[in-house]
Amino acid sequence: MSLKRTIPLASTLLLAAALLSPPAATAGTPTAALAVPDISLANVQAHLGDLQTIATNNGGNRAHGRPGYLASVNHLRAKLDAAGYTTSVQQFTSSGATGYNLIADWPGGDPNDVLMLGGHLDSVSAGPGINDNGTGSAGLLEVALTVSRQALAPQKHIRFGWWGAEELGLVGSTYYVNQLPTAEKSRIKAYLNFDMIGSPNPGYFVYSASGQPTGSLALQQTLQAAFTVPTELTSVGGRSDHAAFARAGIPVGGLFTGAEVVKTAAQAQKWGGSSGVAFDRCYHRSCDTLTNVDATALDRNSDAIAYALWTLAGTGGGTPGPRFENATDFAIPDLGTVESPIAVSGVTGNAPSALAVGVDITHTYRGDLVIDLVAPDGTAFRVKNSSGDSGDDLVTTYTVNASGEVANGTWKLRVRDAASADVGRVNGWSLQF
Ligand code: DPN
Ligand code: ZN
Ligand code: CA
């Protein structure tokens, strides 16, 4: 965040520019609680940076029984407490060392209808475990913080879990499920697992419901629908923390961007990246550091966690329509205008009256920015003015009444920098129909 200097000349230019720009049709209103939010990639990356720092300061890892693990638990717990979660740390013993699960409950919702989301927080001892599983841990944390920021009041009760000692054989999650009284187990109606969601040569894998408890197919399908890129199903079997939940008869699902297995030519064709190379060459190695993460995969998967939560938890919005995004970076030059397109197809009829426009912009002063959503026929909907706004980055969701616009065609996010000295970039944006 930077303090804005008042420059009369800039204001004059701004007024002139405003008079020259095309008329805006309808004003958007920030953040409808029901729209699936865009999860801030920058925030997820900041959490990963924190985990890297914790490892660096604690002998290079965050492994079970080592100080970097408990430091990771305490770090997340403080953030969750501050956001209004009810947290608890559950202790267990494995290989002669104390392990810890971090459980965070979002107050409210039906206590007999619990949606649980989790992933392991421990690394192997060889390295800091940033992709495995800093990524799942950080994505879950940012989604949890977004639930809090939006003061979400879903019909279901939401619980998050960060598991210890996964790398020693799924120890923490197994302990958690086994110690739950039968009645408590039966209240958990679904468990979603996020283990490795930012692999550097990523694939987009959704846990297959095949062979999993009844009810898992709906979870699989919801997670598939969360992506605008093609996904593949994968049989993760007993390789991660959903396994104990599945054994208890709880429907499970999850996301994964690949570990030691090599990407095929067909997979490189549809997802990009390198064929003949492992999805994660640094899997379980010391090089699983902050640089061992693909930002696009991390962004898409973090958004998918939110999509699943908002869709499954009964946030009151009904079943969302299709979602489109453009995750390409566009620089916003000083006093310049940029347009990022999204081509929409396959949607019947007009856009909805509450078209959710997710915006993720990094900027040194967002008060410079005037933003329009431009419909395929050129109609501009002003979602943000430069006046009355200050602060730096802009990560939010606008709701636009676009019911007079045909849905199919190329929509654009037009971002105009109306004052000198501050610059930034569009990291990505999305349209949720
Ligand atoms: N369970 C992961 C690990 O921590 O090593 C690897 C993995 C995750 C493998 C998901 C397959 C599927
Ligand atoms: Zn691992
Ligand atoms: Ca500027």
UniProtKB/TrEMBL annotation:
It comes from the Bacteria. Residues 1-27 form the signal peptide. InterPro entries: Galactose-bd-like_sf, M28_fam, M28_SGAP-like, P_dom, Peptidase_M28. Keywords: Aminopeptidase, Hydrolase, Metal-binding, Protease, Signal, Zinc. Coiled coil: none annotated. CDD domains: M28_SGAP_like. GO terms for molecular function: aminopeptidase activity. Belongs to the peptidase M28 family. M28A subfamily. This is Aminopeptidase S. It comes from Saccharothrix longispora.
